[in-house]
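User: For my dataset I need records formatted as: sequence, then structure tokens, nothing else. Please produce one.
Assistant:
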Amino acid sequence: MAWLWKHAAAWAVVSACAAVPVQGFAAELRVAPGTLLQPVLDAAAPGDTVRLAAGRHAGPVVIDRPLSLAGEPGAVLTGPGSGSVVTVAAPDVRIHGLEITGSGTNLLEMDSAILVQESAPRADVRDNHLVDNLFGVYLHGAAGSVVQDNVITGFKGMRLAEAGNGVSIWNAPGAQVIGNTISHGRDGIYVRVSNQNTFQDNTFSNLRFAIHYMYTHDSRIIGNASRGNHVGWAIMFSKGLEIRNNVSINDRDHGLMLNATNDSQVVGNTVRNGGEKCVFIYNANQNRFSDNWFEGCPIGVHFTAGSEGNALSGNAFVANRMQIKYVGTRDMDWASEGRGNYWSDNPAYDLDGDGIGDRPYRPNDVMDEILWTLPQAKALVSSPAVQMVRWAQSRFPALSTGGVVDSAPLMRPPQMPEDHAQ
């Protein structure tokens, strides 16, 4: 009787809403278009499913108990153009199979299609189409939440300073963002002050940064694809990361940027045809770069600002206009345990047939350093004096001012993974 009395409120509010008991004490409440949705949610019991029928439903709504909000094909939940369309304030809430649109545009208020508050851990946001919202999903302290298999399309035509992110995460340990397609807005995924997060198999386009990390540790970035954004992976002030098997194609600035990122593994990634740099390493220490493919960028890797203790081996630097830009006075050997990297412009010999070039490879010389520090000297690049300096350094290596050297350059590149070739 108590259960029936609990659901009587919902039935009284909406004559077009059918309640069907399912296993245990949970019920499924089907809501027809035009029905007030908030009273149905307020009357639902924990564990119930509120299912929206095809058609348009009016938001905003607040979910303050653990239940499922789901949609039949064609169900659309529309906000009024202010605030968040769905605010989740309780743990273990599931939001599946809806199109959600019509959030506000207030960045400070975190206006979102789905705003998951700190009081709502373990949210499950899956198989939704979130279109024309400031933020798609905002996990604001919602630990252990999952955002999976959604299509998130932000406002088109907004200035970057006014735009929100596809998925924003603040202090949500253990959150996972998997298999989403995210386009338009500021950043695809923006995470700040968190740890043990997993971002995997997402696709990004028409954004500033595909993934933007700030102060986030012990996390995984696996198998994501960035195409045509300003930067693919902007990783800053973080440590203990696994960055593996990601693809950046035609990103306008950098494919991968590491700024103050330490003790991380960068393995098996592909960056092709970046507009400026395949990789930018700035004040990043004790990282391992292995078996990555960097191709067709004006600069293969820009290495600067005192980065220490990084190990590079098995990487392929292919057809970059300048393979390495490094300004420094110390020699840095980019070979690890007798295995170096492949350089497409290295005219090396391998007389003993061991797959390692017989001479170390030095990608830059004295004149490169002069040109980087004094750009106006480019006017003299083809002069006899410059050619004489380069000839002298090639004959007398002691004239070197320091820089990157690969003591065991590979004669053949590692095979680029087939799924990275397109």
